[in-house]
Amino acid sequence: MDATELYRKVLLSIAGNKLVEKLSLKYGRKLASKFIAGDTLSEALDEIEVLNRKGIMVTLDHLGEGIQALSEAAGYKEEYLRLVDGIAERKVNSNVSLKPTQMGLALDPEACFGNIRAVVSRAQKHGNFVRIDMEDSPFTQATIDIVLRLHKEGLTNVGTVIQAYLHRTENDVKRLIEAGVNLRLVKGAYKEPGTVAFQQMSEVIDNYKKIIRMHLDKGIYTAIASHDDRIISWVKDYARANGIPKDAFEFQMLYGLRMSEQERLAKEGYRIRCYMPYGTMWYPYYTRRLAEKPANLWMVLKNMFK
């Protein structure tokens, strides 16, 4: 295990400590603002307009996960309906991301499906697309099942996320490609055991490239979510070498990270989409961003003392 992998595992473990969470919620909101577009939908829509003017597309996410009651899920559903309507009213270039546990997956899978279906149906009426985010491995199969069920109902404006670090990923990709499901391809950001996920980053990278090739070689539109310059350069080189046009794929990055690089990719003619979260339930999302690499934590620590 190299130093970066050790850092990630330690930080995710610390972040799960209740005292650390309590202190972070009390003192960390200003720091988290680096990664979060605002507390309200209006603030987020304003920021989308700023990015759109720079040639950057957006996927908008209302923060929240791991709810305790179905009433919370109903509230999130209503916020997402407002979100979808807000995107249409403001005519911004943005699609939608949501988490299944936010919609009640861990409490009542059928209620969760109904909540997600309402959002996807509303988005379809507006000609928009919904991405169901992939959470940790206990929810992988249930999330895939929701997407496939929605497609069978004719709601094909919905896709999900595939994490390269899971052992099961290649088979999932084959199945979902066959079903015509649009996928966002990522390395993976949750703490998982070796029985479920690759533990060496070299293995994750190899699998990541494999599932990207599986898409590009079949001419399937590919969403590649990575801040890794090695991956970005490899995709560019692979596309050029194989005659794959720039509009056959998109790069995706996170709000608040490498924004100048996002602008540069847009100016180079690549499709680039920024994953933009908003809302007050920021702690889980924030800690995963810090855990991804030491540079993120260093950036936040520097800002603390400015």
Automatic annotation (TrEMBL):
Pathway: Amino-acid degradation; L-proline degradation into L-glutamate; L-glutamate from L-proline: step 1/2. It is an enzyme of class 1 (oxidoreductase). Transmembrane segments: none annotated. Its cofactor is FAD. Keywords: FAD, Flavoprotein, Nucleotide-binding, Oxidoreductase, Proline metabolism. Gene3D superfamilies: 3.20.20.220. Residues 45-296 form the Proline dehydrogenase domain. This is proline dehydrogenase. The keyword Translocase does not apply. It comes from the Bacteria. It catalyses: L-proline + a quinone = (S)-1-pyrroline-5-carboxylate + a quinol + H(+). It holds the Pfam family Pro_dh. The gene is putA. The keyword Flavoprotein applies.
